[in-house]
Amino acid sequence: MFRKILYPTDFSASAEEALEYVKKLKEAGTEEVILLHVYDERDVDVQWEVEAQIHPEEPLEKSRHDVLKRMLENGFDRLKELEKEITHFSFKTELIVEVGIPYQKIIQAADNLHVSLIVMGSHGEHGFVEKLFGSTTGRVLAHGNVPVLVVKPKNHPNSSTH
Amino acid sequence: MFRKILYPTDFSASAEEALEYVKKLKEAGTEEVILLHVYDERDVDVQWEVEAQIHPEEPLEKSRHDVLKRMLENGFDRLKELEKEITHFSFKTELIVEVGIPYQKIIQAADNLHVSLIVMGSHGEHGFVEKLFGSTTGRVLAHGNVPVLVVKPKNHPNSSTH
After folding, report:
1. CB A36 within 8 A of CB A109
2. Which of A4, A136, A141, A160 to mutate to test the interface with B (most CBs of B within 10 A)?
3. ipTM score here?
C-alpha cells in the first residue's frame, strides 16, 4: 500500500517537510523511493529569454542548450543531496530530473513507474508561470491516479507541534 | 507523525477506500482514530423543506428537529459499522457526528483534537450544495493545518493494482 513512493520536489520548505513523512513510511512497508524534480518548461523559456538578452552574441540554440544543461545538472546534484538524507533508511532509490509541465510529469512518472503513493508538499516555490495558472499539487490531486499525501510547510500554525 | 488520525467519511466508496489506508498506518505508529461524519447543514435545510411539504400539518420546528435527530442517529450507526471494521487493529477510537459546513467541521476537529494526519477520499458523494460550491477535500487541503492523505476511489484506473 506504501511500497513504492514518488517524492516530487521543487526543493521548497514544504517539499523538505514532506521528506520527513517519506522516512516515517519506512515502518509502513516502503521499500522504494523515486525522487523527482521537474523544471517547468515555461520557466526554462523565460530563463532562456533572459540569457539571450544578456549574451546577444551567442547563437540562440546554444544558449537554450546551455540553460537546460545547467538546470539538469543542478537538479540532479540537489536530488543527490536529498538522497543522502534518506540513505540510512536503506530504501531502493531512483533520481529523475525532467523538463516539462510539472503536474503532467509527476502524474506520468506515478503511472509509468507504478508507484503506490505520492508524497508532496502543499505549497511549492512557485515559478513565474505556476503563480499565474495554479498549484502543481492541486493538479496532481485532480488529475492523478494514485493516493497523495499532502504535507503542509513546517512553519505552518499547528503543523510543527504534532 | 501518524499517531492520531482523523478519518472524515461521507460513507462514499472513496471514503471506504481511505479506511484501508488508516488500517495500514497502524504499522507506522497510529494509535488513535477519530471517525467523523458531517451532515452538510445546507442539505439538512433542503431535506427539511421537503418534509415540510410532505407533512404540512406538522409544526415547522418539530419537523426540523425530527430530520436532524434521524440524521444524527443514522450517522452514528454507520460510524459504528466502520468502527467494527477496524476493531482488530486495537486503535483507540472516537466517533463524532456533526451538522455544519463539512470542510469547516473537519478542519475544526483536526485542530481541536490535535490530530497528526487526516485520511480522506478524493471524491465524496456530493450533496446538492457541495456540487455547486466545490469539493470538501479540496477545501480541507486549502484551508487546513495538518497533512492530508488523499485516497482515490477503488475503481479508479491504476489505483486498484498497486
Report:
1. yes
2. A141
3. 0.84
Q: Is A155 on the interface with B (CB under 8 A)?
A: no
**Lookup result for grid cell 513565474:** A128
Q: Is there a contact between A97 and B145 (Cβ–Cβ < 8 Å)? A: no
Residue A20 has which C-alpha cell? 520527513
What DSSP string runs through A37-97?
Answer: EEEEHHHHHHHHHHHHHH-TTS-HHHHHHHHHHHHHHHHHHHHHHHHHHTGGGT-EEEEEE
Gap from A154 CA to chain B (nearest CA, Å): 10
The identity of residue B29, as a single letter, is G
Structure confidence by residue, pLDDT tens digits, B96-123: 999 999 999 999 999 999 999 999 998 7
B contacts of A21 (beta carbons < 8 Å): 1, 147
Helices A102-112 and A136-143: angle between axes, nearest 10 degrees:
40
Do residues B122 and A139 touch, judged by C-beta distance below 8 A?
no
What is the CATH class of B4-151? alpha beta
The DSSP bridge pattern shows strands A148-151 and B148-151 to be antiparallel
Residues of chain A contacting B16 with CB distance shorter than 8 Å:
none
Domain ranges of chain B: 4-151
The rounded distance, in Å, linking the Cα atoms of B120 and B15 is 6
Pick from B25, B147, B152: which is nearest to A145 by CB? B152
Separation of CA A156 from chain center: 20
Give the tens place of pLDDT for each residue, A96-106: 999 999 999 99
Looking from the CA of A70 toward its CB, the CA atoms found within 13 Å total 10
* 3-state DSSP assignment of residue A98: strand
